[in-house]
Amino acid sequence: MQYIQTITIGLFALSIVAARPATLQAINNTSENSLRIIHTNDIHAHYSPFNRVGSDCSKHDVKSGNCFGGAARLVTTVNQLRNGHPNSLLFDAGDQAQGTLFYTIGKFNTTIKVMNQLKYDAMCIGNHEFDDGPDLLAEFFSKINFPAICANIDMTKNPRLKSVVKPYIVFEKYKLGVIGYITNTTGNISQAGPTVSFSNAAVAVNRYVKELRAKGIKRIIAVSHNGYHEDIDVATNTCGLDLIVGGHSHTYLSLNASEPGAGGLYPTAVKNLDGQTTYVVQAKAWGEYVGYVDLVFNSDGSVASISGEPVHMTQSISEDASMAANVSEWRRPFEDYGKTVVGNITTETGIENCPQMECAMGDLTTDAMLWSLNRIQQTDMALLTSGTIRAGLSAGPVTFKDLLLIYPFGDDIVRITISGKRLRSIITGGFKMVNLFNGRPVIKFIQISGVRVKYHMDPSNSIRDSKIIDSIEIFKNGVLEVLDDTQTYSLATIWHIARGMDNVIDPPIDGVPLQRLEKAVKEYLQTFSPVTPTTDGRMFKMVAGV
Fold first, then answer.
1. How far is CA 79 from the centre of its chain?
2. Sign of CA dihedral 522, 526, 532, 536
């Protein structure tokens, strides 16, 4: 796969012009050939401001300037960006659902109010929009004042959802077609159920580009919930797309691709099947950033110039007073919910590294799982995916509400019995990011307890952070032993994983629910606080397999 990343100024039609700070200034070119695309993705119900680890802002966070995002800042920023360009559209790239008590308790109620007030122009579906099934999702889409678009979903068996989701929308005023698509792994990582299915995004995009071109639409973009590298792949294998506005992978793209924490360049330029350039953008997650791109089109619909940047939603951005008051009112049902202090941690612990490697929150969570089940029945190890852990912890007291923010899915821990040979394949696949039984990608990197794995990086698959296992040792009766393929082991995991979600275990393994995940961590913290979350080398990275 070939793709180009460039911030070169002045290279004619394929140049990315110098980006300007997000202010109220209008761009010079305001003709009908110029268009501003404003975009959000993976808000995950973060409608109140949050701190660096994704928790509610404390008074100390506010004082130290450690608060970001929130619907009230989003209103201010979107209004500024709209006022700065006469031709503006606002899109969301999915996963408004799931992540805070706004959704856990109120489902889509607050989402509907926030998105309608912001006057989005369209959104694509995210996998977490299916967390409570397609019927609730159809109800949500029937109450928003803008279209939901997704081209690579088959809803033939779900006419209710089909009636409110279209493959694309045409904005006649701008002669612009907008195609939606979602990761085709959604059926394996969500509660989409048997009435919907998902197909290859590139195939669907090419189909609808052809249909739009037949209608005389030359300017075509996509809004995607598919992942940054996956969107690059789609751009490479499609024709006719000017821009992909993405989500799903929570990737921060920067004007400086070497900036710490940046996953690539904003925007990323990709050579498509037409030999033209498709640009890919994304704006991290939770509403910490709002992205915008200013496009100037050639007569053939291709991009003559592009500029823009991700706007960091810091405390320097004022909160819209009306929205701030609304958010305060909307959170009243759970404002005092779960305020009981359950423990104390000594250091701030984030989740930035969890999708790629052993992380402190992963160690803390799996240790709590293993400890909890061992109080019920002897259990050898624990395993879950990084996607289970949705936020970190600030140093100091930990409340039960903090745990509900970290583990919002209501997961049950189950104990399953498994052969050493199959356990080896599961762990190996989890590190390699490919299920060894069915050959499909493992969706999220695993976190473990009760086992030590030595590995080295796979140089042939760096995009997926693929790792090659050198050895696996497991604590058996308190002693670290080499994993034996002929032995039987007991594994604590969550019901979501045991039944095949995230493609870690396939075919699924039946297990009896024994404990709620958030309750296990609560009891662990109550027993061992103060706790200092850290990594201990249970995933030991070796150099070139030595």
1. 25
2. negative
Q: What is the distance between the alpha carbons of residues 10 and 239, in angstroms, rounded to a whole number?
A: 24
Pairing, β 219-225 against β 243-245: parallel
- Helix, strand and coil percent figures for the chain, each rounded to 5: 30, 25, 45
Return the closest-CA partner of residue 420 out of 471, 468, 501, 482.
482
| CA separation for the pair 177, 170 (Å, rounded) | 4
| Mean predicted confidence (pLDDT) in 381-393 | 96
SS (H, E, C) 76-111: HHHHHHHHCCCCEEEEECCCCCCCCHHHHHHCCHHH
487, amino acid identity: Q
- Is residue 309 within 8 Å of 68, Cβ to Cβ? no
So what's the pLDDT on residue 476? Answer: 84
For the beta carbon of residue 380, count every other beta carbon within 10 angstroms: 25
Residues 6+ apart with CB under 8 A from 76: 317, 318, 319, 320
Residue pLDDT, tens place only, 147-192: 999 999 999 999 999 999 999 999 999 999 999 999 999 998 899 9
Rounded to an integer, what distance in angstroms lies between the CA atom of residue 479 and that of residue 339?
39
Quote the pLDDT of residue 30. Answer: 52
Report, in angstroms and rounded to the nearest whole number, the Rg of the chain calculated over CA atoms: 23
How far apart, in whole angstroms, are the C-alpha atoms of residue 430 and residue 387?
Answer: 13
Question: 28 versus 155: which is more confidently predicted?
Answer: 155
Going along 237-340, which residue ranges are E strands?
243-245, 253-254, 264-265, 268-271, 277-281, 289-297, 303-312
HSE-CB of 389 using CA atoms within 13 angstroms: 30
- pTM (global) more than 0.85: yes
Please state, in angstroms and as integers, the Cα–Cα distance from residue 446 to each residue in 357, 427, 428, 524, following that order: 8, 8, 10, 21
Name the helix (H) or strand (E) containing 324.
helix 321-330
pLDDT per position as a tens digit, 397-412: 999 999 999 999 989 9
The three-class DSSP label of residue 58 is coil
DSSP secondary structure string for all residues of 326-388: HHHHHTGGGTTTT--EEEEESS-B--TTTTTS--HHHHHHHHHHHHHHHTTS---EEEEEGGG
Scan for tokens 């294998």, then name that residue.
237
Q: Are strands 396-399 and 341-345 parallel, antiparallel or unpaired?
A: antiparallel
pLDDT in tens, 200-258: 999 999 999 999 999 999 999 999 999 999 999 999 999 999 999 999 999 999 999 99
CA distance 450 to 34: 57
Q: Tell me the C-alpha to C-alpha distance, in Å, between residue 338 and each of 248, 425, 470, 539.
A: 29, 39, 43, 33
